[in-house]
TrEMBL record:
SUPFAM superfamilies to which the protein is assigned, alphabetical: Acetyl-CoA synthetase-like
One Pfam match: AMP-binding_C
Provenance organism: freshwater metagenome
Domain AMP-binding enzyme C-terminal: 453-528
Coiled coil spans: none
AMP-dependent synthetase/ligase domain segment(s): 9-388
Signal peptide (UniProt feature, chain positions): none
Name under which the protein is recorded: Unannotated protein
GO molecular function terms attached to this record: ligase activity, forming carbon-sulfur bonds
């Protein structure tokens, strides 16, 4: 046995085979049923020559089949490659080439794009076509790339667990585009992934779990009903799914985010824990909740005890509305990255919501570095700003990118750290205030302005629905703070009105010098900000170019 994703899942299967594992819509599968199909697909992949170290991509929305794919890949010691289902042809070509994809598991609705890309990638020899979870009758042509339908691939394959022994050192890759640049493949050893993303460390105490600890929990009655709202094509949702599978919880997933349907599911299934991506999900959800309450027939969700946000801003005004609606629930802001895993969490208090950014307690092996990459003493460094770094269990590096790996994964005083570039200000009691990604920092008149801090303040304005802040070249200041704003329907807002409003929350040098109104703020499927696109929109508006 090894500290391997496949082994950890199989321990849960053995502990609770008849408990429900995953549910989509009205369809639920038990741990034993999920295992059987994963074994069948794994045997099919083996028959196609897929084995240890081969890269297999999943190009699909959330579905039970998607979960089966993740498990089948790790069962044969292959390497999971996540694909953003919003990619266009050129982006797919880049990923298939960069990731050296040898097999592809794809929903049928994306067949036309696969047909366009397939001839350009000689190493891609196997394509399994999943039924589309939203359009089950989709009949897109798959003949041009010799696609094999899901049912045909699984037919006749063994459901037995008879695979070779696995290793802690098997790789699991998460492709992350972050907020800038081309997608990068973060290479995790399975053991390290489990420790910092799969629940293998007690996030508060730092104590290491033993291999069977989570599966022992799976034997207990009263396991949780959890609902990660983000697509499994992103690392955070994938990690949450696996962590809950290891512990025997029921995980509900949906192929498409819809706030009304989300509340209906939470109510019907008695969901206890939801994971969401900041305001991009929190705002439409609370508005749907409030609208239903105003109708006189509110949703009834007494079991919803924990609400967790990560990867994007959960702004004070939106957070306040949630806390009013759920006064007895626990709210947490969690921080981390595909390159670090969990770095810290903050339990939010309705009477003490930060106006600067999420305030979190640092997790195990997390430190703050100064500009010379020296570790700042947390106790004596209160008020100082630096880059967050995580030691201990960190990734091997970026796939096929030695230069970027050397920039992100640093050796400091003999210890290896992951430093993706998130800045934070040190507070008391081992806490920090998150300020945002340094690559997005605006240098204006010799001062550093972190976009997320300004965005948090701007979102308090009643006319603002969403906002991103970028730096635009300025002859006098070097860069000027520019607010790219999506207004509420029917609302108006002028720059001076916004600047006057913000003076209560921000220093003068942080106030926007330009305001650009757009129909919709650019974000990806999970709500992560797309700053390069926001800057393009700002430049188009301000310069006409």
């Amino acid at each position: 046995m090894a500290l391997n994703i496949a082994d950890l899942f199989e321990h849960a299967v053995d502990a609770a085979p008849d408990k429900p594992a995953v549910k989509v819509g009205d369809r639920a599968v038990t741990f034993a049923e999920l295992e059987a199909d994963a074994n069948r697909l794994a045997h099919y992949l083996t028959s196609r020559g897929i084995g240890a170290g081969d890269h297999v991509a999943i190009y699909a929305k959330n579905s039970i089949e998607h979960v089966v794919c993740v498990l089948a890949i790790v069962k044969v010691r292959a390497v999971n490659i996540n694909v953003n289902y919003r990619y266009v042809e050129s982006e797919l070509d880049y990923l298939f080439d960069n990731a050296d994809v040898k097999a592809l598991l794809v929903e049928r609705t994306y067949a036309p794009l696969v047909a366009a890309c397939y001839p350009k990638h000689e190493q891609l020899q196997t394509v399994v076509v999943l039924p589309d979870v939203l359009e089950p009758d989709d009949s897109s042509d798959i003949s041009s790339f010799d696609g094999v339908l899901w049912d045909d691939a699984l037919a006749g394959q063994s459901a037995e667990r008879d695979f070779e022994a696995r290793s802690n050192d098997d790789l699991h890759i998460i492709y992350t585009g972050g907020t800038t640049g081309f997608p990068k493949g973060v290479m995790w050893r399975h053991e390290d992934f489990w420790r910092v993303l799969g629940g293998g460390i007690d996030f508060m105490s730092g104590a290491l779990l033993e291999e069977m600890d989570q599966s022992e929990q799976a034997k207990l009655d009263g396991r949780m009903v959890t609902f990660p709202l983000s697509p499994l094509m992103h690392g955070g949702a994938q990690a949450g799914l696996l962590m809950h599978l290891f512990a025997g919880h029921l995980t509900i997933v949906e192929p498409k985010f819809d706030p009304v349907r989300t509340w209906e599911i939470i109510e019907r299934e008695g969901v206890q824990l939801i994971f969401m991506t900041g305001d991009a999900m929190a705002r439409p959800l609370i508005e749907a909740w409030e609208e239903k309450a105003a109708s006189g027939t509110p949703y009834d969700c007494p079991n919803l005890l924990a609400i967790s946000s990560s990867a994007a801003i959960f702004s004070p005004p939106v957070k306040e509305r949630w806390m009013k609606a759920f006064p007895n629930s626990f709210f947490t802001d969690s921080i981390g990255a595909s390159e670090t895993g969990f770095q810290g969490t903050g339990l939010q208090d309705a009477k003490n919501i930060s106006t600067d950014g999420p305030v979190v307690s640092l997790g195990p092996h997390v430190v703050v570095l100064d500009e010379d990459n020296r570790v700042i003493d947390i106790e004596t460094g209160v008020g100082r700003t630096g880059r967050l770094a995580r030691g201990g269990h960190v990734p091997v590096g970026y796939y096929k990118d030695e230069k970027k790996s050397a920039e992100t994964f640093l050796v400091i005083d003999g210890a290896r750290y992951s430093v993706p570039g998130d800045f934070a200000r040190i507070e008391t009691d081992n806490r920090v205030t998150m300020l945002g990604r340094g690559s997005n920092c605006v240098n204006t008149g010799g001062e550093k302005v972190y976009p997320e801090e300004v965005e948090m303040a701007i979102k308090r304005h009643p006319s603002v629905y969403d906002v991103l802040v970028v730096g635009v070249a300025d002859e006098k200041y070097g860069q000027s703070v520019t607010a790219v704003v999506e207004l509420r329907e029917g609302a108006t807002l002028e720059l001076e009105e916004l600047r006057s409003f913000l003076r209560e929350y921000l220093s003068g040098y942080k106030l926007p010098r330009a305001l650009v109104r757009v129909p919709q703020i650019p974000r990806n499927a999970t709500g992560k900000a797309q700053y390069p696109k926001a800057k393009e929109l700002a430049l188009e508006s301000l310069t006409g170019v």
